[in-house]
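Quick one, C-alpha cells below. Sequence please?
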C-alpha cells in the first residue's frame, strides 16, 4: 500500500529565529507566459537522484499542459539552481534573477531509511522577484510514488496561482480500438503511460466513473444490443449489471453512487431509466415515442440533462428532475442536433455537442447565461467530459482520418491532442483523488 503524506504547510518550513520577525509573502498570479524553472531537487545521495529527476520531469510536464506557462525542466537545467543549502528552504539566491526566471521549483530529496526504499521530499516554489518561497510542502513515499508526488505538488502550484487545485494525477478512461478489438484504457493527466482496464477483447463504449473513482461503468456492445458492465478502476474482470433486451448506454452515476441513469430500449422506444447497482430497473424517467438519450446526472443530484427530439426532428437538450416530472428545454439550435451533455463539477455549466455544417463541435453554456460559447472549430468532436477542477475538457476528436483523445484548456484556450497509433474515443474524466 502506498504512503503519501502531504499536509505540512509553508509556515512549517519558514521558521524564524525571532518571535518579532515575520514573513511577508504577497502572491501575485503569474501572467501567461511566465517562465518557471523546474530543475531536479537537491540531493546528496546517488539513490535519491532518480526520484528527484522524476519529480522535476512530472512537475514540468504538468505545468506545460496548462498551456499558460513556460516551464523549463531538467533538459535545460540538469542540476539544482543556486546553492543547495543545509537549512530548510532549498536553493535560491538573487543571482537567479539574471536568468530571467519568474518562478523556481526547488527542494531537497533524501532517503528516510537505511535501505533507500523510502524518501522525504521537501518541495518549494520561489518567487524570483521577491526572492522568497511562496509555497512549501513535505511528502513521504517510495520511489514509485515520485510521479504521484510530482502531480500533487503541481496541483498545489496551480492552487497557489489560481486559488483552485489542479487536476494533475486524475485519470481519463477511454475506448482504445486496434483492428477489430477494443479495450478500456486509462491515462493520468500529465502521465505518458496508458493502463489497460478491461482484460478481454470486446466492444466497450461510453465509460463513466463512479463518484468515488473506484469503479468504471460502461456498455459492452453486441451488435445493436448492449448491457451495462462494471469494472474496477484498477483493471480486472468486468461484472455484468443489466440483462435487458435492447441497448443500455451512456450511463451516468447519481452523485451518491447508489443509482445510475441510462438510455434504454423498452418496448421499441428509446427512453431514460434509473437502475440500482444490482441492475434492477427502479424508475422509468421518460417514456415516449421520442428518442431520449445521453443522460447526465447533475452534481447536486437534483437534475438530469439529456438529449431528445421530442419537439422536432432535431435533437435538443432538456433538463428533468431526478425524481421525474415534465422535462424543460435547456437549449436548441435551429437545424442542428445537440446531445451528449456533461455537467461541470460545480453544476454551473454544461458542455455538449452540436452539429455544425456537417461536423460536430463542442459548446459550453452557463446555466446563468442564455447563449452558449463554441469551443472547437475543426474536425469532429464528441463525448466531452470535465476535469474535476473545471480547468480542462477532454473529448474525442476526429481530424484527417485520425481519432484521438484531446484536452481543451479553458484558461489557455488551447487543445492538446494525445496522439497514439490506435483509434481512441469516448473519454471520461475521473474524480480528483
Amino acid at each position: 500500500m502506498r504512503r503519501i503524506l502531504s499536509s505540512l504547510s509553508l509556515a512549517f518550513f519558514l521558521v524564524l529565529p525571532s518571535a518579532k520577525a515575520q514573513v511577508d509573502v504577497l502572491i501575485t498570479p503569474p501572467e501567461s507566459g511566465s517562465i518557471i524553472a523546474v530543475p531536479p531537487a537537491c540531493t546528496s545521495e546517488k539513490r535519491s537522484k532518480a526520484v528527484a529527476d522524476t519529480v522535476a520531469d512530472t512537475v514540468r510536464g504538468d505545468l506545460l499542459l496548462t498551456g499558460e506557462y513556460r516551464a523549463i525542466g531538467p533538459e535545460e537545467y540538469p542540476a539544482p539552481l543556486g546553492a543547495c543549502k543545509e537549512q530548510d528552504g532549498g536553493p535560491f539566491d538573487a543571482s537567479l534573477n539574471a536568468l530571467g526566471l519568474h518562478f523556481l521549483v526547488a527542494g531537497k530529496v533524501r532517503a528516510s531509511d537505511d535501505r533507500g526504499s523510502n524518501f522525504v521530499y521537501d518541495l518549494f516554489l520561489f518567487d524570483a522577484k521577491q526572492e522568497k518561497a511562496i509555497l512549501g510542502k513535505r511528502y513521504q513515499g517510495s520511489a514509485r510514488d515520485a510521479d504521484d508526488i510530482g502531480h500533487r505538488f503541481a496541483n498545489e502550484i496551480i492552487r497557489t496561482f489560481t486559488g483552485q487545485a489542479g487536476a494533475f494525477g486524475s485519470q481519463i478512461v477511454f475506448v482504445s480500438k486496434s483492428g477489430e478489438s477494443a479495450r478500456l484504457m486509462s491515462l493520468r493527466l500529465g502521465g505518458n503511460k496508458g493502463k489497460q482496464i478491461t482484460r478481454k477483447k470486446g466492444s466497450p463504449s461510453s465509460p463513466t466513473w463512479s463518484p468515488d473513482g473506484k469503479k468504471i461503468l460502461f456498455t459492452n456492445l453486441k451488435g445493436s444490443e448492449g448491457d451495462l458492465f462494471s469494472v474496477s478502476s484498477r483493471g480486472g474482470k468486468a461484472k455484468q449489471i443489466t440483462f435487458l433486451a435492447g441497448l443500455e448506454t451512456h450511463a451516468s452515476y447519481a452523485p451518491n453512487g447508489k443509482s445510475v441513469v441510462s438510455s434504454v430500449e423498452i418496448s421499441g422506444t428509446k427512453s431514460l431509466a434509473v437502475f440500482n447497482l444490482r441492475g434492477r430497473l427502479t424508475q422509468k424517467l421518460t417514456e415516449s415515442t421520442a428518442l431520449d438519450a445521453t443522460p447526465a446526472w447533475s452534481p447536486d443530484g437534483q437534475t438530469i440533462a439529456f438529449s431528445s427530439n421530442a419537439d422536432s426532428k432535431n435533437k435538443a437538450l432538456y433538463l428533468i428532475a431526478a425524481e421525474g416530472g415534465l422535462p424543460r428545454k435547456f437549449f436548441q439550435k435551429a437545424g442542428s442536433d445537440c446531445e451528449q451533455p456533461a455537467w461541470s463539477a460545480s453544476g454551473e455549466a454544461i458542455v455538449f455537442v452540436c452539429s455544425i455544417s456537417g461536423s460536430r463541435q463542442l459548446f459550453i453554456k452557463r446555466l446563468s447565461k442564455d447563449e452558449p460559447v463554441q469551443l472547437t472549430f475543426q474536425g469532429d468532436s464528441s463525448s466531452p467530459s470535465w476535469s474535476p477542477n473545471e480547468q480542462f475538457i477532454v473529448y474525442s476528436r476526429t481530424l484527417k482520418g485520425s481519432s484521438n483523445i484531446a484536452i481543451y484548456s479553458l484558461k489557455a484556450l488551447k487543445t492538446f491532442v494525445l496522439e497514439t497509433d490506435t483509434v481512441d474515443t469516448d473519454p471520461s474524466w475521473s474524480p480528483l483523488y
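Helices lie at 10-13, 46-65, 146-162. The chain has two domains: 10-162, 171-240+309-316+327-429.
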